[in-house]
Structure formats: C-alpha cells, structure tokens
C-alpha cells in the first residue's frame, strides 16, 4: 500500500498487519517480525509451562506416574532441537521484553500491563535457581533430577518460593495470552471456559507437587536420606544458587539503571523532534498536538475542520515513534474508521507527541500556506444562516415579455436583492436561474447571521414591492417571491474552477444548505412568503413569535423540523422585535 493510497483512505486492511499496523512488503518488516517473534517465543514457553504444570498435577496420582510423564517431556525438551527451542525462546522472550520496556516513554499503563511486566521480572528471581538446581546440576554433575530427588530437595524449605513461582509464571503467561486472544471473534464466548482452565490448572499443579512432596516426606520419615548424592554435588548446588542469584540481580540492576538513564536522558532532552520526511525537522516541547506543532513551526498542514477531529485532512502516516503515542481515542478511531485508515495513520489534531516522531503528511499541503492566509481555501466548518429566494412563476411570466425586458428585469431584481443582502452583511453565494442563495454569518458571529438573514428577508420583500411598483407597466403581473431560511453547521470553502484572479468561489456545503433550499420550496406548498426554521429563530434570539408553527418533514433528513411560516412581510419585521 502506498502513501498515496493511505492518503486517499483506500486501504481495505489487506496486506496490513492489523495487530502491528505495518504493511507487508514495506521497508519496515523489522518491527512486525519482532512482535511475532515475541509472541512465538512466549507460546513456546507457555507450551513448556503447560506440560510442566500438568506433570506436577499428576502428583495427585503418584510420583511414579509423574516420573513416567516426565521422561516423555524430556524426550521433547531435552532433545537437541527441543533444548535450542526452549532456551532460545527463553532468551528471545526476555530480550524482547526488555526491549519493549526500554521503548516505553511512560509508566502510565493499564493494570494488566503493569502486572505482566512486574510478574515477568519476578520470574527469573525464582526460576534461575530452579533451573540450575535441576537441569543445571544434571548436566554439570550428572545429578538425578527425577521428581523424587527434586521433591526431597525442595520440600519443605522451598515450598513457598516454588509455589510462588508457579503462580507468577502462570499469571504472566495468562495475561500475555489474554492480550493475544482478546481481539479474536470467538474469545467472548470462550472466555468463561478459558478462565476456568486458567484458574484450575495452577491449582492442580500446586496441589500435585505439594501432595507428592508430603507423601514422600511421610514415606521417608525417620530415615536419613541425603538431599544430594555427595558433598561435592551439594557444594556445587550451593555455588550454582549463589551464582544464579548474582546473575539475576546483576541483570535486574542493569535493566533498572538503563531505564533510569533513559528517563533522565528523556527529561534532559525536553524537546521532541518531529521529522516530516524530506529532511524537514522541527523541535517542540511536549504538550501541543502535532497539528499545533506544525502550525507553530510554519509547516503547511491541512486541517479542514480546524482541528476538531471531524475531517481527517490532518491525517499523517506515522513512520517512526508510533509506539510512544497513546492509542487512538474514540473520536479518532471513529473518524479514521470511516476511511478505513490503517493503524499507522493518526490524526495530527488528536495526538500530542511526547517523544521523537516521524510522520508523513497524507493530504497534499501544496498551497497550505495560502490556506493559512485564507481559511476558506481548505474549508472551514461554521454555523451559518443560509437564505434561498426564488421568484414565483417567473418563467411563465417571462414568456409574455421581450427577452431584453426579461434580462433587464432580472438584473434589476438581482441588483436590488444583492444590495439588501450585502447591506445586512450577507454574501450572495450564487444566482440559480431566477433564484438566489445567500450566506449570512460567514464571519464568526454569535447568532450565526440569523438576525441579519431575517432582516434581509423582510427588506428583500419590501424591495420586491418597490420593483413591482417600478415595473408595473413592464410585467403583466407583479413579481412574487418565496424565501427559505435555515441556520446550522456548514462547510465554507473555495470550490470549483479557478477564477481569473487565481482563486475559487466561496461557497457553503452541507445539510444546512439543503434544508434552507427545501424550506424555500415549501413556500409554494404553503402559499406563503417565508418558511424559516425554528433553529434560525432561536439563533436570532426570537422566542415564540406566535403565528404558524409547524413540524415538517424535509427531504433528505430523517427527522422532521420545526418551521415558522410567514405570509405577510410585516410579520417578518415584527418578529425581530421579539427577543428572548
Ligand atoms: S483537522 Fe480535521 S480531523 Fe484533524
């Protein structure tokens, strides 16, 4: 998938590892491979632990049965391939776990994650001594490490530590499996069963090895059975235990110091570096959104909705440091899901970099500098008032007139209406045949231009009466006009082909425009002068002006809207004196 495809939101998820968010065939195979390696190594270790614990559980039957099954397990794990697989997985899993820890920039994390990390680091403290005391002693001194001698050595002194080891290992593995399985579709249905197994298995393992050890103790009561076959073996075991402890604590100390060093370095660095590709880099202190950082540093960055998380035009492909970002929030997730954006794509207006970040802007920013000078260049969402006006029956009226007179009349009408609209701060968006679409509140206004639109409507009707008086001898019948007004959010932007001056026309798009147009059409049905929505009256601060209120269905909207119908020009002027 190319960046261009991502930019167009053309990803279908094919070829993308949803778990890691990296595309197949990209130059960044390393990270997903490491993630899979960590999972695979964890699964190998889990398989070992599962068989080991099941073997322990057989202690509820007898030590002899435990040993029989143990030989089968050894056939697997003590074979050369099994040994390489097991200890390789152990080393890889620890290395990747430490790597993940060093890549963390924050210690704020869900309880599950914290528990998994804590348990993960507790494992070597108890496990290394166990490994050295069993297989280590077997390899180094040929010491028998079947269940019976091992139980004799562990019971009762090691009862607590070994039981704790069972719980810690199982807890760490269970949380890891939970994270892996939770996204699967079948998981919710299987969860109760899995939880039962996850609870029962360690309990059976604990019960099995403790029962076997106690039975052995009872059997040998009164007899002096040496724990180790010789003095040398006992001394070697002691040395192994101490060396193992030193090794583990040196390792944990090194990791701890490394983490502290990373934290200190991060604090000292203070500013984060944002790389936009093409050699462009900026530095900024953590806090602002990526979009704000772009703006502060003069990096052209498109943001049609102004950073409200609605338009996706600020989206970026995160090429480095994505793991330092918090997961997508609900808003970001919802908006990006609409364009089926891959996991690496983030909204610049929603992310606040706290560490170095590499990004690629996905929406072309050519001309974004101009866009910053002219906010309408890339579109602005704003609450505005839209007015539609249409001459009633003008086509049939014009049929009885000379074309020159028709043009003259229409131009006179448009000039008069434009003058009224502009006098009230509105702009004529376009002329549609004999109709007019006008916008009010295109500059931020508290009432979204609603009062100006209503005042314009009244004056436009008055201007029409003047025109009718002026052209009484020219037109066979007086001109009549219907007006529709609605207030709501719309996207204001420059749309269409370039004009001579190198700029596009400003227009409004969206449901508010369509609704205003439908209200104007309703004036024919209701045989009235004006249909305005209650939203416009409210925006204008007009409450219950009296008269004809109706709830009407509007084509293209699922819900009806409340409208106010005026059939006299004076009524429109009157309502502007009624305020909340
Ligand atoms: S600027 Fe619109 S979603 Fe970010």
UniProtKB/TrEMBL annotation:
Major location (coarse): membrane
Entry EC no(s): 4.6.1.1
Region span, Disordered: 1-25
Domain of life: Bacteria
Localization, UniProt: Cell membrane
GO MF entry, a single one: iron-sulfur cluster binding
Domain Guanylate cyclase: 385-520
Transmembrane segments: 39-64, 84-102, 114-133, 159-181, 193-210, 246-265
Alphabetized UniProt keyword annotations: Cell membrane, Lyase, Membrane, Transmembrane, Transmembrane helix
PANTHER family: ADENYLATE CYCLASE, TERMINAL-DIFFERENTIATION SPECIFIC-RELATED, BLL5647 PROTEIN
Protein name (record): Adenylate cyclase
Taxonomic path: Bacteria, Pseudomonadati, Pseudomonadota, Alphaproteobacteria, Hyphomicrobiales
